[in-house]
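Entry type: protein chain
Record version: 2
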Amino acid sequence: MNAASLSSKALFVACLACLLVVVAPAAAGTASPARAAGCTPGVRTVDGSPARVFCGPAKATVHVGGKTLAFSGGLCERSGGMYVLNMGTFFAGGSKSPRPYFGLLIAKPKPGTYKGQALSFRSGAVSKSSFAGVTLKTLHSGTFSGKLIGGGTVTGSFTC
């Protein structure tokens, strides 16, 4: 893969991450999801950097590089004609925070199988992005699998 191709993918992933964070808050303001004790959703400074904190009942399990990562405290929402999952704390800039984040953008807010859906996650030192195949079983659960940008594979599941 050449430098121009990697640069284009990096730019796309950065734009995707912004979309995950911009689209979801529009729907978040209209709902009152259950949230974890001590979690306050919204945009604020976290660990010295601007961030968007998500709270709610959503959970995801990610299998990557021989590790299993668990995410919780998030939302699954219909927004802008898409289905958006956000869990944890999203940093728009280059924060070094170890706070976990999981984001998945699905083309349509209805059950089905979709190829090339945008996935991004961070847990400790593991920070990856992918264009994953997603099976949305219901609007409350699904599975995903795909090739990671930069190499490797990812599989997992989520519930809301």
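Comment: The chain has one helix and ten strands.
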